[in-house]
C-alpha cells in the first residue's frame, strides 16, 4: 500500500481517537453532584414553583444567566436599550376575571364562594336588573314555565334540572329517564330559551350544598381557566351570551326576598305538577363580571458559544426553565423533574463545552444554549423564539431538547438505565444514527422509542419545545424519561431525583451535540415522517 495513503489513514484514525478522547474528557465534568448542586436552587421553595413570569421564574433566569456568563457564553439578545442580554424578553397576554360580584340590597356576595359562573360572562360595569322566578326555566310541549310571564329586559332565576315527582319519574316525559333539560349542559338550553324570551341574564339555583357544592365550585374554577389561557398576541373576546350565574339557594332566596324554605316549597309544588305561585317571586339584583387583560412579562435565557471554522451553522440545546407555580391551596409545585432536570442539564452541558473551548477544543459549529419559558402554558417560549430567532433558522442544524429526565416511569421501575428518544428520525436519518452511535460508544442505555410511534396516544412529540423547531423543518431529538405520580404535583421535589441515572443521559446529549457540532458535514434533512 502507498506510504502516503497509510500515513493519511493513520492521521485520520489518530485524529478520531483524540476527538473521542476529548469528548470523554469534557463529558466527565458532568456529574451527579453538580446536577444536584444546581437543582437544589432551581427547584427550591424560595422560587415558588417558577410559574411563567413570576418572581421565582425570574430568579431562575438570573441564576442560569450568571452561570452562562461565568462560562464565557455570549449574550446575543437585545435588551431594548442597545446592549446585549442573556434574556430574550417577550410578553404573554392573559384574559381573566377582575372584579366579579353579585350585590343584593347593597351587600356584595363573592365569586367562587357564594356563586360561580357558567360560560363566559362579561359585564364590565355594575348592572342592575329586575329579577323574576321562572320555575325551572323550561318550555317543552305542554309544559311551560314562561306562560303568562313577562321577562323582557329582566333577569330570570330558575331551578337547576327539571321537575321530578316523588316516584322518581320526570314530569316532562313520565319516565325515569332524564330529558335534555337535565345534565351538565342543560343550563345552555335554559339560557338560550330565556334570551329568546327577552331576558337579559340568567341566574340558576344549584341543587348542590355543603361539600358537594364546594367541590363543584372548585371544579368550575379549574374549568374556567380555559377562558384565562395566555396567548402570544392580544385577543378580543366575543362572549356569545350563553352564560349564567349559579347561586347557592340561600343567596337566591335573599335575592327574591323570601326564605330558603319557601323557595324549596315552591320547587316541591312544581315537582308535584302545580304552578310555583299565583304571583311570581321578584326582586332586584346588581352584579358585575369584569374581564381584564393581564400582561405577563417573561423571558427565554440564551447563551451563545461561537464556533470555529463552521461558526455560521448553529446547534440549539434546549429545555424549559419554568413550571406551574403555586396550587390554589397554597402548595408549591417545585418542578424538580419538570423541567428542573432539563434546566440544570443545559447548565452542565454548557460548562462542559466551555471547558473544551478554554482548552482550545471549542466546537466547530456554534451552539446556542436555550432555556425557554411558557412551555406549560402552550410552548410559548420556543414558539416565540422560532418566530423571532436570535440566529437564522436556516443555519440551525438541529435542536436537542431535554424535558423530564430525572425520574423513572412505571414501565421502567426495575430498569432505570433508559431514556425515551423522540423525534430523532422524523426529519433526519443521520441524526437518528448519530444518536444511536453515541449511546453505543459511551452510555449503553436503553433507547426506548415507544413514544416515537406516531400511533402512540400520548403524542409527546407534539408536547415539548422541540416541536416548534420541527415545525420549521429543523431536525430534533426530545429526551424524556416519562411521567410519574408527581407529575404537575407538589411531590416533584429534588429528593426524588435520581442524579446517578440522570447524569449519563446528560452525557448522551453532550456526546450527540459534540458530534453534531464537530462533524465535517451538516446533517441532512432527508426524512419526513409523522
UniProtKB/TrEMBL annotation:
Task: Indicate the secretion signal residues.
Answer: 1-19
UniProt keywords (A-Z) are:
Signal
A Pfam family annotated for this chain is Peptidase_M28
Task: Give the top-rank taxon of the lineage listed in the UniProt record for this protein.
Answer: Bacteria
User: Which InterPro entries does this entry report, sorted A to Z?
Assistant: EF_Hand_1_Ca_BS (IPR018247), M28_fam (IPR045175), PA_dom_sf (IPR046450), Peptidase_M28 (IPR007484)
Residues forming the Peptidase M28 domain are: 300-508
Q: Is Signal found in the keyword set?
A: yes
PANTHER family linked to this entry:
METALLOPEPTIDASE M28 FAMILY MEMBER (PTHR12147), PEPTIDASE M28 DOMAIN-CONTAINING PROTEIN (PTHR12147:SF26)
Official protein name in the record: M28 family peptidase
The species this protein belongs to is Dyadobacter subterraneus
Amino acid at each position: 500500500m502507498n506510504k502516503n495513503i497509510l500515513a493519511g489513514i493513520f492521521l485520520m484514525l489518530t485524529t478520531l481517537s483524540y476527538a473521542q478522547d476529548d469528548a470523554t474528557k469534557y463529558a466527565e465534568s458532568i456529574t451527579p453532584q453538580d446536577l444536584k448542586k444546581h437543582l437544589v436552587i432551581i427547584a427550591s421553595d424560595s422560587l415558588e414553583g417558577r410559574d411563567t413570569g413570576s418572581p421565582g421564574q425570574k430568579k431562575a433566569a438570573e441564576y442560569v444567566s450568571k452561570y452562562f456568563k461565568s462560562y464565557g457564553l455570549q449574550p446575543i439578545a437585545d435588551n431594548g436599550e442597545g446592549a446585549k442580554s442573556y434574556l430574550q424578553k417577550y410578553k404573554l397576554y392573559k384574559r381573566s376575571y377582575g372584579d366579579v360580584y353579585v350585590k343584593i340590597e347593597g351587600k356584595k356576595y363573592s365569586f367562587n364562594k357564594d356563586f360561580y359562573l357558567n360560560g363566559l360572562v362579561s359585564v364590565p360595569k355594575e348592572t342592575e336588573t329586575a329579577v323574576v322566578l321562572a320555575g325551572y326555566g323550561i318550555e317543552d310541549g305542554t309544559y311551560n314555565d314562561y306562560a303568562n310571564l313577562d321577562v323582557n329586559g329582566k333577569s330570570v332565576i330558575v331551578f337547576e334540572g327539571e321537575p321530578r315527582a316523588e316516584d322518581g319519574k320526570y314530569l316532562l316525559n313520565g319516565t325515569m329517564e332524564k330529558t335534555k333539560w337535565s345534565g351538565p349542559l342543560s343550563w345552555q338550553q335554559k339560557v338560550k330559551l330565556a334570551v329568546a324570551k327577552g331576558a337579559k341574564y340568567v341566574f340558576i339555583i344549584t341543587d348542590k350544598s355543603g361539600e358537594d357544592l364546594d367541590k363543584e365550585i372548585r371544579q368550575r374554577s379549574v374549568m374556567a381557566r380555559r377562558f384565562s389561557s395566555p396567548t402570544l398576541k392580544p385577543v378580543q373576546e366575543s362572549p356569545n351570551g350563553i352564560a349564567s350565574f349559579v347561586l347557592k339557594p340561600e343567596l337566591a332566596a335573599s335575592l327574591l326576598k323570601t326564605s330558603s324554605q319557601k323557595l324549596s316549597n315552591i320547587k316541591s309544588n312544581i315537582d308535584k305538577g302545580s304552578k310555583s305561585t299565583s304571583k311570581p317571586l321578584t326582586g332586584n339584583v346588581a352584579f358585575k363580571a369584569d374581564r381584564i387583560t393581564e400582561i405577563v412579562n417573561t423571558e427565554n435565557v440564551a447563551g451563545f458559544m461561537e464556533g470555529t471554522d463552521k461558526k455560521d451553522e448553529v446547534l440549539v440545546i434546549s429545555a424549559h426553565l419554568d413550571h406551574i407555580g403555586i396550587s390554589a391551596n397554597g402548595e408549591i409545585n417545585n418542578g424538580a423533574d419538570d423541567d428542573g432536570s432539563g434546566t440544570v442539564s443545559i447548565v452542565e452541558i454548557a460548562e462542559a463545552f466551555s471547558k473544551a473551548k478554554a482548552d482550545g477544543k471549542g466546537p466547530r459549529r456554534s451552539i446556542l444554549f436555550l432555556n425557554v419559558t411558557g412551555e406549560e402554558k402552550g410552548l410559548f417560549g420556543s414558539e416565540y423564539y422560532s418566530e423571532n430567532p436570535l440566529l437564522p433558522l436556516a443555519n440551525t442544524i438541529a435542536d436537542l431538547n431535554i424535558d423530564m429526565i430525572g425520574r423513572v416511569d412505571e414501565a421502567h421501575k426495575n430498569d432505570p438505565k433508559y431514556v425515551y428518544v423522540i423525534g430523532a428520525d422524523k426529519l433526519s436519518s443521520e441524526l437518528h444514527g448519530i444518536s444511536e452511535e453515541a449511546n453505543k460508544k459511551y452510555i449503553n442505555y436503553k433507547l426506548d422509542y415507544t413514544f416515537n410511534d406516531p400511533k402512540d396516544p400520548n403524542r409527546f412529540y407534539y408536547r415539548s419545545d422541540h416541536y416548534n423547531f420541527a415545525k420549521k423543518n429543523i431536525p430534533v431529538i426530545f429526551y424524556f424519561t416519562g411521567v410519574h405520580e408527581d407529575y404537575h404535583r407538589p411531590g416533584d421535589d429534588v429528593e426524588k431525583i435520581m442524579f446517578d441515572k440522570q447524569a449519563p443521559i446528560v452525557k448522551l446529549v453532550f456526546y450527540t451535540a459534540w458530534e453534531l457540532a464537530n462533524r465535517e458535514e451538516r446533517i441532512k434533512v432527508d426524512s419526513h415522517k409523522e
